[in-house]
Amino acid sequence: MLMEKYLQHQQELHHVFIDFKKALDRIWHEALWSTMRKYNINSNLMSVIENFYNKATSAVFCNNNIGDWFRSTVGVRQGCLLSPTLFNIFLERIMTDALEDHCGTVSIGGRPIINLRLADDINGLAGNECERASLVEQLDKASSNFGMEINAEKTKIMTNSKESSKKEIKVNGQILESVTKLKYLGSIISDEG
């Protein structure tokens, strides 16, 4: 729908569909606790969550043998109901840091919109190629600062602009694939609306 509106008004719209490598497995606990404090999350709740993670130990079971027990300082628990919320808190910090100085030119109802997110499905929005390249660069830098890595193989770019130079964007030395159609949150998004 957004692409259709921008096509109707003959305005450029550039998408960056971001994918992080092993997103839930790479969350640093200390950075997560720091982020929760920064966002003034209730200290009693934080204490419960920190204890839940800091006191947990794991071991590898292989060939009927249990290896040494160890404590993990990274990643959130797979299948835990709390994990998506913890991930969203962590991702909010990354996005806030990445987009702190980024002035977006895409708007919905007069309100600037730089990205659309649902859990780890991120759609970065830009009004031109330079803005899109800057968005990717800033997000890559901020995510690296927090131990996250953009998956260049699964991250895609799209534009409705026919005059666009199709400028290459690289992440970790790999060119991001430009697509004309993509399934995002169960819907097909096309460069033609």
From TrEMBL:
Keywords: Endonuclease, Hydrolase, Nuclease. GO terms for molecular function: endonuclease activity. It comes from the Eukaryota. Residues 1-189 form the Reverse transcriptase domain. Signal peptide: none annotated. It holds the Pfam family RVT_1. This is Endonuclease-reverse transcriptase. It comes from Plakobranchus ocellatus.
